Amino acid sequence: MVRGHWSIENRLHWPKDVVLNEDETYGRDPNALLIASLFRSITINVLRLNGFDSVSSALRKLANQVEQIFHLLQ
């Protein structure tokens, strides 16, 4: 059970906090913050479903590659 918890922490929460700077997000509207968090989760899931193990390396590889990003979403 503990390993399952840390697996979630390391595969989802850590990339959201460190790579996508979720902890530095601020705002007054709780719905906007929730939607931004959902987009971050979707981004991580799309990257992982397309074979990227590292979110930070995927973001570096896909920077300015608009066509490739749209291809990932199909």
Q: What features would you describe in this structure?
A:
The protein is mainly alpha-helical and 74 residues long. It has four helices and no strands.
Distinctive features:
mainly alpha
Span between termini? 35 Å
Low-confidence stretches: none
Helix content: over 70%
Give the overall shape: globular
Report a brief summary of the structure:
This protein has helices at residues 2-19, 30-49, 55-62, 66-72. The chain is an all-alpha fold and 74 residues long.
List the helices and strands and how they pair.
Blueprint: H1 2-19, H2 30-49, H3 55-62, H4 66-72
